[in-house]
Amino acid sequence: MNNMTSPKSVLNTSQLSVYYGSFLALKNVDMAIQANEVTALIGPSGCGKSTLLRCFNRMNDLIPDAVVEGKVLFNGKDLYGSEINPTEIRSRIGMVFQKPNPFPKSIFDNVAFGLKVNGYTGKMDEAVEWALRQAALWDEVSDRLKKSALTLSGGQQQRLCIARAIAVQPEVILMDEPASALDPIATLAIEELIRELKQLYTIVIVTHNMQQAARVADKTAFLMVDDARGGYLVEYDATSKIFTNPSDSRTEAYITGRFS
């Protein structure tokens, strides 16, 4: 598959490398992420999946000694250009973390938080309801919006975090193992939500769950790690091809559980 820029690409990396101090975490990643698709990042622990994900909204800026080399383009513009405001980028490229992290505030205030920070001047009630409906949570919480978000179940908390991310209407949603802390029923609810949300958003998801990648992703990137090269991209293609007819024997070994 051609990993270069295409007309629909929202995010593109070129020779992307990341160092944490002298440690090489990710090396020379070239890939293009398409609009309104779900892209899964898979691979063994330590191969740089989360590091790559954090490059897409400059979260690595918050890590001491992190150095990003190469290019990351967002709609054709250099995401690391001197004129780019990282805070603005993080509202346009939202993030949902592995463990649900609602603020110790009401359900309503959790969703409204980003809107207030961004100076939203519209009708807050309508914006909060819209986001909760988008996250398939409104029917469950509409009668207790003033209650603490911490009273929700784990799956509900994660959907609330998704609602909080999409309230500011980003273009891209990054998800770092969003269902790893959830039970199977809550996991399936998150997966169904991901499939629905891609109609409006471009989604990049890190997952250790092969079945989850196969179920939700349009494209899948397989990364590996070795001591000399750090994390690197082995193969990036349509999910159906990655899981049924991968081009690289290392991908096949990982998918089939023979990876050592």
Strand tally is 10
Give the count of structural domains: 1
- Overall geometry: globular
CATH fold descriptor:
Rossmann fold
Query: Can you list the strand order of the major beta sheet?
Result: 6-7-8-3-9-10
Distance between the termini: 26 Å
Architecture (CATH level 2) name? 3-Layer(aba) Sandwich
* Poorly predicted residue ranges: 1-7
The amount of beta strand, in percent, is 25-35%
Order of helices and strands: EEEHEEHEHHHHEHEHEEHH
Broad CATH class: Alpha Beta
Biggest sheet record: 6 strands, mixed
Overall average pLDDT: 92
**Class from secondary-structure proportions:** alpha/beta
Helix content: 25-40%
Helix count, DSSP H or I runs of 4 or more residues: 10
Which tags fit this structure?
260 residues; alpha/beta; Rossmann fold; six-stranded mixed β-sheet; four-stranded antiparallel β-sheet; 10 strands; 33% helix
Question: How do the strands and helices of this protein lay out in sequence?
Answer:
Layout: E1 9-20, E2 23-34, E3 38-42, H1 49-55, E4 66-74, E5 77-78, H2 86-92, E6 93-96, H3 107-117, H4 124-134, H5 138-141, H6 154-166, E7 172-176, H7 184-197, E8 202-206, H8 210-216, E9 219-226, E10 230-238, H9 239-244, H10 249-255
Parallel strand pairs: 3-8, 3-9, 6-7, 7-8
Antiparallel strand pairs: 1-2, 1-4, 4-5, 9-10
Helix pairs in contact: 3-4, 3-6, 4-6, 6-7
How would you describe what is shown here?
The structure is a single chain. The protein is of the alpha/beta class and 260 residues long. It has a single domain, classed as 3-Layer(aba) Sandwich (Rossmann fold), CATH 3.40.50. The protein is 33% helix and 27% strand. The protein contains ten helices and ten strands. A six-stranded mixed β-sheet has the order 6-7-8-3-9-10, sandwiched between helices. Strands 2-1-4-5 form a four-stranded antiparallel β-sheet, with helices on one face. Helix 3 packs across helix 4 and helix 4 crosses helix 6. The N terminus is likely disordered.
